[in-house]
């Protein structure tokens, strides 16, 4: 095998990256001055901020109902307004009418997450339209001070999310990224630094679209470009997250240094990120959201779904209902497991039962680098239409091509074929009825380690039809 491919197979995730991947699905909350009116140029004042019914428990419960495992809050967005009483600016909740300037949105959201068992993360926009020092080295000091407040005062964070956006033309900030990372690593060692950071990369669009072939091992150049705000304006000239292929054999061949840099799909449930009246009529449909979920969480990426609170500080009822429907549909997808009493063996006759026990710590690993198959014998003839496969990413991402076959009267018949697996691949196909399923690993970057094969009968279509006819 070529040297580059051998090297790619040896690139492993950090513990924090594995933990992050296992979160799969979590929520984004865009809340700021722009919630209270259109604020494209960042001209609104702190006096506009007054969410009179603010109740983060409502947000957290709605996210939980959707099956999310965490919440990420825009503590400061591009307009520069801070949702916590920062000691380094007057432009914050402390000068708003909300709770007479004595409140702290970040604190209340962090507490609500903890109370309900969700992880909490902070978004801090590097681009700041309000702060006077922006564009000078003093801004680095300001930004580090704010990071220190957020990382030091609100308990454990699962992620710190930067944002690559920058539309300012006159002021250019040369961010001292390494000094930001140092603060996060010191105060929040288990938090992932996402977008413009070393741990998690942007999927490359904001429409909820995932790649068919998604690699977590990519050239280091992708990270360098991601730290260069506004880089997507130069999409054709420098390798970056928006490119269709950034991980295949053919692509990585030209690069020296490879890193583990998994993808996150970020998308809003509505057309805008922040609240805009009337957009409740344009929520993504349940079907679209489910599709995004299946393609992202089932396509080696995590899904970050944004829901904007209204000016009262609550999610609109329409969003709450859609989240509940989504959660119900996701739970239904995995509720009818077909593996009770099943057995698994590889093409050499070795036991592969570890794939069926649902325990991440136990896995099956192929003995050689050759293509191989695992045959699963079910407890009698069984009907199913969904298979979820997970590589043991702790041992790298290796699978480049695989297929699934079902055994029937005419012998083995292919029912699914795809390229990468990674953290997870959700395979959906026409319902089959069989006693035997075969997973063929057709091409891989070395020995393959798999931790799970789940087999399900998903009644999603039926459920959607029922909902529609109600
Ligand atoms: C973009 C920003 O400009 C949007 O407002 C939003 O925060 C999105 C998540 O990232 O780059």
Major sheet: 8 strands, parallel
Low-confidence stretches: none
Number of separate domains: 2
What is the number of beta strands? 17
SSE pattern, N- to C-terminal: HHEHEHEHEHEEEHHEEHEHEEEEEEEH
Looking at CATH, which topology of the largest domain would you report? TIM Barrel
Number of DSSP helical runs: 11
Notes on the structure:
Helices cover 25% and strands 25% of the residues. The protein is of the alpha/beta class. The chain has two domains: 3-333, Alpha-Beta Barrel (TIM Barrel), CATH 3.20.20; 343-462, Jelly Rolls (Sandwich), CATH 2.60.120.260. An eight-stranded parallel beta sheet has the order 5-4-3-2-1-10-9-6, with helices on both faces. A hairpin with a 2-residue loop joins β14 (399-408) and β15. The protein is globular. It binds beta-L-fucopyranose. Beta-L-fucopyranose (FUL) binds at residues 163, 165, 266, 273.
What distinguishing features does this structure have?
binds beta-L-fucopyranose; 8-stranded parallel β-sheet; alpha/beta; TIM Barrel; 7-stranded antiparallel β-sheet; 2 domains; 17 strands; 470 residues
Task: Write a brief structural summary.
With 470 residues, the protein is an alpha/beta fold.
């Amino acid at each position: 095998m070529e040297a580059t491919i051998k090297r790619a197979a040896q690139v492993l995730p950090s513990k924090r990256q594995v933990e992050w991947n296992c979160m799969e699905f979590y929520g984004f909350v865009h809340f700021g001055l722009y919630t209270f009116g259109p604020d494209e140029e960042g001209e609104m004042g702190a006096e506009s901020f007054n969410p009179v019914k603010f109740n983060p428990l409502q947000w957290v419960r709605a996210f939980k109902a959707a099956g999310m495992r965490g919440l990420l809050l825009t503590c400061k967005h591009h307009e520069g307004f801070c949702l916590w009483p920062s000691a380094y600016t007057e432009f914050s909740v402390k000068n708003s009418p909300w709770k007479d300037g004595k409140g702290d949105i970040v604190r209340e959201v962090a507490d609500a997450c903890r109370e309900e068992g969700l992880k909490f993360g902070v978004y801090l926009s590097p681009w700041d339209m309000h702060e006077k020092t922006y564009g000078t080295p003093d801004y680095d000091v300001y930004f580090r001070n704010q990071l220190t407040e957020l990382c030091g005062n609100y308990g454990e964070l699962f992620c710190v999310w930067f944002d690559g956006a920058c539309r300012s033309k006159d002021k250019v900030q040369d961010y001292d990224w390494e000094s930001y990372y140092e603060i996060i690593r010191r105060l929040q060692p288990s938090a992932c630094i996402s977008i413009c950071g070393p741990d998690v990369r942007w999927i490359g669009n904001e429409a909820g679209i995932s790649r068919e072939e998604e690699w977590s091992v990519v050239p280091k150049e992708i990270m360098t470009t991601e730290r260069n705000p506004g880089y997507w304006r130069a999409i054709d000239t420098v390798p970056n997250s928006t490119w269709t292929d950034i991980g295949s054999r053919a692509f990585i061949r030209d690069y020296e240094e490879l890193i583990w840099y998994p993808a996150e799909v970020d998308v809003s449930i509505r057309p805008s990120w922040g609240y805009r009246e009337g957009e409740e009529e344009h929520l993504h449909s349940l079907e679209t959201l489910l599709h995004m979920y299946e393609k992202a969480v089932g396509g080696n990426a995590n899904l970050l779904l944004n829901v904007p609170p209204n000016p009262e500080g609550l999610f609109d009822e329409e969003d709450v209902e859609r989240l509940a429907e989504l959660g119900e549909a996701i739970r239904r997808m995995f509720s009818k497991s077909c593996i009770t009493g099943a057995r698994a063996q590889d093409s050499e006759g070795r036991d592969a039962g570890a794939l069926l026990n649902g325990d991440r710590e136990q896995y099956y690993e192929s003995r050689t680098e050759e293509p191989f198959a695992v045959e699963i014998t079910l407890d009698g003839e069984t009907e199913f239409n969904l298979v979820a496969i997970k590589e043991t990413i702790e041992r790298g991402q290796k699978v480049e091509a695989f297929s699934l076959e079902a055994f029937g009267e005419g012998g083995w018949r292919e029912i699914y074929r795809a390229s990468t697996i990674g953290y997870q691949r959700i395979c959906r196909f026409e319902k089959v009825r069989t006693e035997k399923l075969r997973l063929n690993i057709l091409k891989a970057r070395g020995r393959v380690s798999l931790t799970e094969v789940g087999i399900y009968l998903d009644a999603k279509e039926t459920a959607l039809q029922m909902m529609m006819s109600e």
